[in-house]
What does this fold into?
Amino acid sequence: MTAASDGIPRVIRLDLAYHGGPFHGFAANRGVPTVEGLLRRALGRVLGHEPDLAVAGRTDKGVHARAQVVSFTTPRDDLDLDRLVISLSALCAPAVVITSAAWAPPDFHARFSARSRSYLYRVLDAPVGDPLRADQVWHVRTALDLEAMNRGAADLVGENDFTSFCRRPKHPPGASLVRGVTEAGWERVGDEARFRISANAFCHQMVRAVVGAMIEIGRGRRTPDLIGEMIRRADRTGAPSLAPPHGLVLTAVGY
Amino acid sequence: MTAASDGIPRVIRLDLAYHGGPFHGFAANRGVPTVEGLLRRALGRVLGHEPDLAVAGRTDKGVHARAQVVSFTTPRDDLDLDRLVISLSALCAPAVVITSAAWAPPDFHARFSARSRSYLYRVLDAPVGDPLRADQVWHVRTALDLEAMNRGAADLVGENDFTSFCRRPKHPPGASLVRGVTEAGWERVGDEARFRISANAFCHQMVRAVVGAMIEIGRGRRTPDLIGEMIRRADRTGAPSLAPPHGLVLTAVGY
It folds into this structure.
């Protein structure tokens, strides 16, 4: 590892997009392909050292990202970041693309500096599916009642305990599962029902759990007060199934 | 094979969509996955006989279809076609979806009755690619000059000899490669350059050859008169490279 001219490690921020299909999630995991694993190996080849990565949103297996953010420190201060983007993208394409690289303030941390995350979930509610979107929309055969789903979604907004919508094992024992949701709503875009949600942070599998519950409302199997009830109950037992991962995409991280 | 009650075989028209990625093209080919092979096996299970299929557009390996049309005859006149759609789609999903099935006139033939075919070719001309579209757009790093490309495209329209844009071996010796193009043009849709072309019929690899030549114009390596020159020359020698198959999709067949 070469020392920087002033000896102070510097922080680089990478913005990237990826297709979740080929990966077992973002986080490095021995023996399976991951976004982090691919990116660290590429950085190792370009930088001469494999940095530890901080990430804004640890997406699960199969989940996509349009705007993921990663940061790391490097002793290298001689880097041409435009060239870094090109080199990394060449090593990671086509499933991962680096959209930008920039020097960040010394206290920048992709995860801890992030103030908001936004996700989009796409559903095709039609009798027949679409093979050209099958990797990015959840196909349900029933026409969904978006108005009812939006009444449920309204109960998500605010500071709420999302225990009913989280996989506990990924969180430290006793950790709060209260999250602040700033936006949650469905809209019809062409033949798709699209759900957008923003929060300060998300607990594990929260968006897929929330979507799974709202689809039950949209199909008429549950009433819109399901969401508020689940928040108050704060117990995952008996919760509706998770929506599948391939309909989900991380769309923005705010700092 | 069971005889129909009146003994007269009847014609069924299927409309279907597929993702070209998993297939070595439409046409059945021993030992490799094809759309025709998958569909014939599914029909065999549902009908009790594997019919010979006529197809409107024999797409190549990797080419997609939003609106392909297939026809076949069957001695079965007891079929519930709504159920046929559901059964076939269940057997062919997710890469192939049957969008409709209908009884057709006795002289209907998906290939010979078709009067027009329309294709769309999608190009992302931007410094960085998009992993969420990488299977359906051709990524070129240079910003394309659509105005120049459209001047070239104008020379495609009309009754022209497309020898310079065709792979000969797939056509009978001496067969005419004159095709009637009714529409050909590029437009900008968001960050994509999209090419639409309609003709009475296409010869083998014609759209990919035409797009490959026009991209050379759009990059400024060739002038717009390249297309007219290639048509007049009627010789494939020295033609620009084919555009890759994954940007191409069959969008409509007219009868």
